[in-house]
Amino acid sequence: MPKINAARLLSDLRRFAKFGAYRTGVHRPSYSEDDINSRRWLAEQYETAGLRSYIDGVGNVFGIPRSEERALLIGSHAESQCYAGWLDGALGVIYGLEIARTFAKSPGCLDLPIATVAWADEEGHYVPMLGSRSFIGDIDQEEIDRATNVDHGLPLADALHAAGLARVPRSFIEAQRYVGYLEGHIEQGDTLESSGKRIGIVTSIVGTWQYSIVFYGTQNHAGATRMAIRKDAGFAAAKLAMAVAESFPQVAGPSTVWTAGRVTLEPGAPNIIPGKAEVLFQFRDAQMSVLRRLDTLLRELVEDTALKTGCRFGILQTEAGAPSHMDLTFQEAIEDAAEHHASGAHMRMPSGAGHDAQIVAQKLSAGMVFVPSIGGISHHWTENTADEDLVLGCQVLADAAEAILRAGGKKSGAHVQER
Hints:
It contains twelve helices and 19 strands.
């Protein structure tokens, strides 16, 4: 079995966290100077691991084996949320690097090629899952050209130009080149910690359905307008929130979650009845049938709320991501490795957050390993995981990678296609 170097793994994780260091976390948004410098550093490390490295036209960093055998691709995303944690994404990237190094020095694994990747903009500073979507051919140049930064409006084309990537070709998958894809990640929740488990074997990644819901009322004076004749868009938004809280549990699945992430009122003054209210709302589940039930119910609740408040309404679905299920054979390989290293301290579980694995799974068999997040915290600079769990997760992934490659055969294939 391949034996990872725990000290080297932890050292590399902490070295990577210096790019954009912020308190105990990092601030490394997509295509920032720190992000680009971190990708160049990764490319250098991939080379030292014996891989052929390069950065493609959207910023994905690849480490390609020099062997012609089918490889197992391992990685995650390199950028961070703003002022966030040091492990989200970075963990899976450094896992890939460490496993590639370990296999290159393990006599029993020299014939088992590992490919590595650090995806770009999974966090969606410009386009969610941009790097992995580009890799599988799910985004065209027109969408890239019209994308802008969600915080400050900088065109993606300008960001790529500033990073020196404007004339660099994108890389596209040739599925026959790979046995599959593995990703390691912090859980970003407290299921493992609260259950006393140390390893999560991801069974599925939820689909996220998101909506912009707008109520149109009548803007008027808050003091002089009788309650009986009001058409208050803000009240309609609040009433919808209460209706969702009462009705969604009746049709939701056991792991369904929903969130009204933003409510805006116009004009937003204390002495004016809101004439318009917009609710940005999403729900997530791993079963398409549940998502469809929730969609039907939400539309009924919006229409009923508008009728009861005298407001007009509009509802626009802005995201309709399908759930993605991880490969059963990969799950078994991860579970066997987890049982060997942490008997009884592992569990199969869905992912409530989105990951590049759900995109890559459209073209390749995919699997994911979770390690606990202390306190269930993520997307915040206090995000952390115990060192022993960081090491355990990598060792489990390495053992699973060996088993998958030995079972996957050695069919020759072409390298990643660039165009």
